[in-house]
Write a structure and sequence with these properties.
Elements lengths: L1 E11 L15 E5 L5 H12 L12 H8 L5 E7 L2 E9 L11 E9 L8 H14 L1 H4 L8 E7 L6 H7 L3 E11 L14
Parallel strand pairs: 5-6
Antiparallel strand pairs: 1-6, 1-7, 2-3, 3-4, 4-5
Helix pairs in contact: 1-2
Length: about 200
C-alpha cells in the first residue's frame, strides 16, 4: 500500500526574515550538543519522529551516524524542559541535494517529543535553531557566511509544522506530491509505534 505525501520546501534569504517566537514559561533551555554522539542523536531522532513515520535514519549503523555528525557545519541544538530533553533541531551546511553549498544551511530535522508538543516550546526552539543557522559560520572557521536557510516539511509531519515555519518567516519555494510506501509508525524503539 502507498500513501500520497506532499513535501513543501521553505526558505529564508536574510537574517531579517526570522520572526522569533516568545520564550515559553518555565525552565526551558536550549543547548548545543557539542560532542557528536550517535547514541544521543539516534535517541532524539527516534523519539521525536517515531510517531510521525521518521524512518530514513533508523537503519543507519553507528559508523554512519558518526560520519553524519562529524561533518563540518553540522550542529545539534537540544531544548530541555526542567532538565529533560524536549526536542531538537539539526543544522547542516549543505544545499538541496545534500551537497556542500556555499552559504546555505539546511534545517535537516526539527521537532519535539510527543509529551512536549503544544506547550509553546516548538516556536522557541525553531527560532533559536534558525538564528544559529544564520550565525553558523561564526562557529565553523572556513565556512562561508550564511546567505540562505532552508528546510522541508511534509504532510506526515505534525499538524502545526507548516504554520510554525511560516510564523518564523519562512517562504514556500517548492511543492512536490509523491506516492510513498505506507510504513507503520516505528515508535522511539522497534515495536513501540502507536498507530
Amino acid at each position: 500500500m502507498s500513501i500520497t505525501v506532499t513535501t513543501w520546501s521553505l526558505e529564508q534569504t536574510s537574517p531579517s526574515d526570522l520572526r522569533p517566537a516568545a520564550a515559553p514559561d518555565g525552565d526551558v533551555r536550549i543547548v548545543r550538543a557539542e560532542v557528536p554522539s550517535p547514541e544521543f542523536s539516534r535517541f532524539l531522532y527516534a523519539s521525536v519522529g517515531g510517531d510521525i513515520r521518521w524512518s530514513d535514519r533508523l537503519s543507519l549503523s553507528y559508523a554512519e551516524w558518526q560520519k553524519l555528525l562529524d561533518r563540518p557545519g553540522v550542529e545539534t541544538w537540544v531544548a530541555y524542559d526542567q532538565g529533560t530533553p524536549a526536542g531538537y533541531v539539526e543544522l547542516a551546511a549543505r544545499g538541496e541535494n545534500g551537497d556542500a553549498a556555499e552559504g546555505v544551511v539546511e534545517i535537516v530535522y526539527f521537532g519535539l517529543l510527543p509529551a512536549f508538543r503544544g506547550r509553546r516550546i516548538g516556536g522557541h526552539l525553531l527560532s533559536h535553531g534558525v538564528a544559529r543557522a544564520w550565525d553558523l559560520a561564526e562557529r565553523w572557521p572556513g565556512l562561508a557566511p550564511t546567505e540562505r536557510v532552508w528546510l522541508h516539511t511534509c504532510s506526515k509531519d505534525g499538524e502545526h509544522a507548516m504554520d510554525n515555519y511560516r510564523r518564523r518567516g519562512f517562504r514556500l519555494f517548492d511543492t512536490k506530491v509523491e506516492q510513498e510506501a505506507d510504513v507503520p509508525t516505528p515508535g522511539p524503539w522497534p515495536g513501540s509505534g502507536r498507530d
